[in-house]
Amino acid sequence: MGIYEYVGDDGQTMLLPCSALALPAAKETDLSPFKLGEWNELGRKIRGSAMKAPAALRGRNAAELGKALALPTAEAERIARLLEFSTQLSVELQSLFEHGLWR
Hints:
Blueprint: H1 3-6, H2 9-18, H3 36-47, H4 62-69, H5 73-83, H6 86-98
Helix pairs in contact: 4-5
C-alpha cells in the first residue's frame, strides 16, 4: 500500500496548515502551523464555500483563497504559503511510511 491509500488529498491538505512536519526549522521561517481553533474556523469556511473540501485549496493563490473563503489578506497569504510545502510533506510522509508508521 502506498502513502495515498492512508492519507489522501484532503488529509494531506489538512496536514499542511496544521502541522510543522513539512516546514523548515523555526529559525528559517516565520510560518507557524494553525492552532486547533484556527483550523476549525477554516474548516467551517471551506465547508460553507463552493470549495467544500480541503483539497480544493491546493493550487490557489492568496487572492483566490481570500475571495473564496472571505479571509483577511494576512490569513489568506499564510494559508497559501503553508500550502507551498506540499512536495516536502509528501517526502516526509513517504519517509514515515517507509519506516513503518502505518504498518
